[in-house]
Design a protein that fits this description.
Chain lengths: 287, 311
């Protein structure tokens, strides 16, 4: 895809609204939150994200927080809604999790690229690390409806950190859990199980979301097996709408290395075009 | 109320209202046009452009700080050729007033860029960014020394020709900003942009390493606003006839008014756009209301009002 042209097309459905919280439930270490967003829901695709203001009017947190959309429903009782899975680990996300039903949050979305869907029925594997599983359930549903086989692999450091709600499992052909400490599923890092599962399920396309180190490992496996790998990447981001140039990742575009914005040209990117070992670039970059 | 004159001028150029974007905080306008028509604000100040395409620095490039943020982008950009071919025509088509910001690694590069811009139609002014803190060599921050600052401006002045106003963007990271301002005014600038970000740093307590890939970065946001107010006030006091594009942590109309009272002729909004893409529109409307509430009949009479002796 031509990244230079892409920026003119993408985000054209993005809107900025004050979204009302209509549900906020603690699920293990995470919060499942539902927002009334009107027409934003209809244009959201699996892989898109939203950017929320946090901390209230007098907050010292000046930047938005980006969250992958867990689910978008365009015709619910309350009109369009989107659901997010929030991990309360920083001051912004803790503030968000502390909000009550009826509170409003300023929201911009849907933003960024969506997962690409195979044109023919394919065997797909969806790999999520921690609450990185959030955008994969809607993707699973979409792939299932297109006739794809969907094998889901979810891993985390410990059982409680795997986000795998019941309703999310409906669309998957198989679900494999892994934990680093062995408290659930296969004992070990998620990437250790992937080669075996690829062989078992005859996987053709991999989708992944989670920490960058995990995505990097999955990308190596995808390359070994010569599979298409679409991953949702993460980098420190200020604006979320493409103006600040902070959230870039180095990507090979033809012969060149380009720093592409993960908010506009991502978060979903082609794993094979990303230069994962950015330290190797350090001397080649303009200072 | 409708008779309130909100326009402002920098040298020969008139702007419909005094609210601009800040360079590096609006790219070249396309992304923001999703949220408001660019013609609604005084001008788009484009991200500082260099003679060649530039990848910029390694990531992480951003760290949030109390009431602010650090960035170490390092002037990533498409280079002047693609910029003139793609971005300027697009901005003109979208009826935006354009201030082109330029940055160079050498005095000559600024001259080359000025020469490229001299014949370009549709530009309202040139911002000469001599104060980007995200360069490897502090000696390249031309705005840190009066002689290097004026050498760049002289080079631009020689090459630009015509009547395109030149605005020098200065750094607050100096002992005496009035001295730097004096040197660039002497070298022939038509206006000043105050202030660029301040050089800062943050360290991650888990990794115990600097948070930014470039280690240091430019601090922006409300945290730096008092420094902007001070710098604008000092420079306006010394050079009341030199227009100042004021910036530094403006996130609402009151903040903008504070900079205007200190002496700003126009206001650039930077970091606030990151938290709210329509911040410039809200700030424009709030500033207008605040000025009318205070009995000003036009924007111009509020510029530098804090310097007046109240009898």
């Amino acid at each position: 895809m031509d990244a230079e042209l892409n920026q003119l097309k993408i985000n054209r459905n993005a809107k900025q609204i004050d979204a009302e919280i209509i549900s906020n439930k603690k699920v293990g270490p995470y919060h499942h939150m539902v927002f009334a967003v009107g027409e934003i829901a209809a244009s959201a695709r699996p892989g898109n994200f939203v950017a929320l203001s946090v901390g209230g009017e007098n907050s010292a947190s000046v930047l938005r927080r980006a969250f992958a959309i867990y689910r978008a429903t365009d015709k619910g009782l309350l009109g369009g809604t989107i659901e997010l899975v929030v991990s309360p680990h920083g001051s912004g996300s803790k503030w968000l999790c502390s909000l009550q039903i009826g509170d409003f949050v300023n929201l911009i979305g849907p933003l960024g690229t969506a997962f690409g869907i195979p044109t023919t029925a394919a065997n797909t594997m969806l790999i999520g690390g921690g609450y990185g599983s959030a955008p994969l359930f809607a993707l699973a549903e979409l792939l299932k409806n297109r006739g794809c086989r969907v094998d889901m692999v979810l891993g985390a450091s410990t059982a409680s950190k795997i986000y795998a709600p019941l309703e999310g499992k409906r669309s998957v052909s198989s679900l494999t859990l892994t934990t680093d400490d062995g408290t659930a599923g296969v004992h070990g890092q998620i990437t250790e199980s992937i080669p075996r599962l690829i062989r078992e399920f005859n996987t053709e396309v991999i989708y992944s979301c989670g920490p960058m180190s995990m995505l990097n490992s999955i990308n190596k496996i995808a390359q070994d097996f010569d599979l298409v790998h679409q991953c949702s990447v993460e980098e420190s981001m200020a604006c979320g709408i493409g103006v600040c140039m902070t959230c870039v990742v180095p990507v090979r575009v033809n012969e060149d290395i380009k720093m592409l914005r993960t908010c506009i040209d991502g978060p979903v990117m082609n794993g094979s075009s990303i230069i994962w070992d950015k330290e190797s670039l350090k001397d080649g970059l303009t200072k | 109320m409708n008779s309130f004159d909100f326009s402002t001028k920098i040298a020969s150029k008139r702007f419909e209202n005094p609210i601009f974007t800040a360079s590096g905080c609006a790219s070249s306008g396309q992304e923001l046009s999703q949220f408001f028509p660019l013609s609604e604000i005084g001008a788009i100040v484009t991200k500082s452009i260099m003679s060649k395409a530039r990848t910029g620095r390694i990531t992480p490039r951003m760290a949030e700080t109390p009431s602010g943020m650090l960035n170490s982008i390092g002037l990533q950009g498409p280079g002047i050729d693609l910029f003139l071919e793609r971005d300027i025509p697009w901005l003109i088509e979208n009826k935006s007033k354009i201030v082109v910001s330029i940055a160079g690694e050498s005095v000559d590069e600024y001259g080359v860029l000025a020469r490229r811009l001299r014949a370009v139609q549709g530009i309202s002014a040139i911002e000469v960014n001599i104060s980007c803190p995200n360069v490897e060599n502090r000696g390249q921050v031309f705005a840190c020394q009066p002689d290097t600052a004026s050498a760049v401006i002289e080079s631009v002045r020689r090459n630009i020709g015509g009547e395109l106003p030149i605005i020098a963007k200065l750094s607050p990271d100096v002992t005496d900003i009035v001295e730097i301002a004096a040197s660039v005014i002497k070298a022939g600038v038509d206006g000043l942009a105050l202030i660029n970000t301040l050089l800062g740093m943050a360290i991650d307590l888990n990794t115990m390493q600097p948070k930014l890939g470039g280690k240091t970065g430019g601090l922006s946001g409300p945290a730096i606003r008092p420094i902007a107010v001070r710098a604008i006030y000092q420079v306006h006091q010394a050079f009341p006839n030199t227009p100042i594009v004021g910036m530094g942590g403006v996130s609402n109309g009151k903040d903008a008014l504070e900079l205007v009272l200190a002496g700003a002729t126009a206001i650039s909004v930077g970091t606030a756009t990151f938290s709210d893409p329509t911040a410039v529109i809200k700030i424009r409307d709030e500033l207008r209301s605040l000025l009318i509430e205070r009995g000003f009949s036009d924007f111009k009479s509020a510029i530098g009002y804090a310097h007046r002796q109240i009898a």
